[in-house]
UniProtKB/TrEMBL annotation:
SUPFAM superfamilies: CheY-like (SSF52172)
A UniProt-annotated Pfam family: Trans_reg_C
InterPro entries with a match to the protein in the record: CheY-like_superfamily (IPR011006), OmpR/PhoB-type_DNA-bd (IPR001867), Sig_transdc_resp-reg_receiver (IPR001789), WalR-like (IPR039420), WH-like_DNA-bd_sf (IPR036388)
GO cellular component, one term: protein-DNA complex
Gene Ontology MF annotations: phosphorelay response regulator activity; transcription cis-regulatory region binding
Every Response regulatory domain range: 4-117
Location of this chain's protein in the cell: Cytoplasm
Organism of derivation: Marinobacter oulmenensis
Protein's name according to its UniProt entry: Two-component system response regulator CpxR
GO biological process: regulation of DNA-templated transcription
UniProt key word Cell membrane: no
Keyword Nucleotidyltransferase tagged: no
Every OmpR/PhoB-type domain range: 129-226
Length: 229
C-alpha cells in the first residue's frame, strides 16, 4: 500500500502536529501552507492521497479541489469546520472522497487515510482484467474506470467504489451498513450523510433517470436498476 500524503493546511501548529503523527504511523508527508503550493504539489503526482483544508489564505480548498479534479483523480479527504454541512455537501459535489471535521483527532485521520488507501490497493490487487457490462455501463477494472455508452464517467475514487459495488449486485438491495463498509471502508454512524451525498452525485453523473437507476429502498439501502434499452 502506498502511503505518500500531501497535507495542505495553513495552520502551522496543526499542520506540524498532523505531520508528526502521520510520520510516526509510517506515512511519507509532503506539506503545503496555501492552496497554490498545494495544488502544484498535487499535480506533480508526488503523493498518493491529499488531505485538504477548506479554509486557506490564498484560494479556498474547494477551488483547489475543482482545479485538481479537472486534471487528476487523486483521492482527497477534506478538513471542514465542525457542523458546517454546506462545505461538506459542496465538497462532495466538487469531488471529495471523504471529510473530517476540525479540530480533528490525528488517530481518526490516520484511520480514514488507511481505509481509503487500503481499499484502493485491494481493488488494484484483486481486480479481474475482463470488463463487465450492465446495460449502458461498462466497468473496466484494470483502469478503475466506468464508461457510459463508451464515455468515461468522471468519478472520484469513492464514487467508483460505491457504483461498482452496486453494479456487482444489480437488482438486489445493498444495505447502507454494508455499502459503507465495502465502499468507504468504515462503519456507518448515526447522522453520517457521506454515503447519501455520494449516491446523490452518482445519480447526477448517470443522468438523473426517472425513476432513478440507483433506487433508495427505505429503511434498508440502495439498489441499482439496469435500464431497459
Amino acid at each position: 500500500m502506498q502511503n505518500r500524503v500531501l497535507l495542505i493546511e495553513d495552520d502551522d501548529e496543526l499542520r506540524a502536529l498532523l505531520a508528526r503523527y502521520l510520520d510516526s504511523q509510517g506515512f511519507t508527508v509532503r506539506e503545503a501552507a496555501n492552496g497554490r503550493d498545494g495544488l502544484a504539489l498535487a499535480l506533480a503526482q508526488d503523493c498518493d492521497i491529499v488531505v485538504l483544508d477548506i479554509m486557506l489564505p490564498d484560494i479556498s480548498g474547494l477551488d483547489v479541489l475543482r482545479e485538481l479534479r479537472g486534471q487528476a483523480h487523486l483521492p482527497v479527504i477534506l478538513l471542514t469546520a465542525r457542523g458546517d454541512e454546506t462545505d461538506r455537501i459542496v465538497g462532495f459535489e466538487v469531488g471529495a472522497d471523504d471529510y473530517i471535521p476540525k479540530p480533528c483527532n490525528p488517530r481518526e485521520l490516520v484511520a480514514r487515510l488507511q481505509a481509503l488507501l487500503r481499499r484502493i490497493a485491494w481493488d488494484q490487487k484483486n481486480e479481474v482484467d475482463a470488463a463487465r457490462t450492465y446495460g449502458d455501463l461498462r466497468v473496466e477494472p484494470d483502469q478503475r474506470r466506468i464508461y457510459q455508452n463508451d464515455t468515461p464517467l468522471d468519478l472520484t475514487a469513492t464514487e467508483y467504489e460505491v457504483l461498482q459495488v452496486l453494479l456487482a449486485r444489480a437488482g438486489s438491495v445493498v444495505r447502507k451498513t454494508d455499502l459503507m463498509q465495502w465502499a468507504l471502508g468504515r462503519r456507518l454512524e448515526a447522522y453520517d450523510r457521506t454515503l447519501d451525498m455520494h449516491i446523490s452525485n452518482l445519480r447526477k453523473k448517470l443522468g438523473n433517470d426517472d425513476p432513478p437507476r440507483i433506487e433508495t429502498v427505505r429503511g434498508l439501502g440502495y439498489s441499482y436498476r439496469v435500464p431497459v434499452s
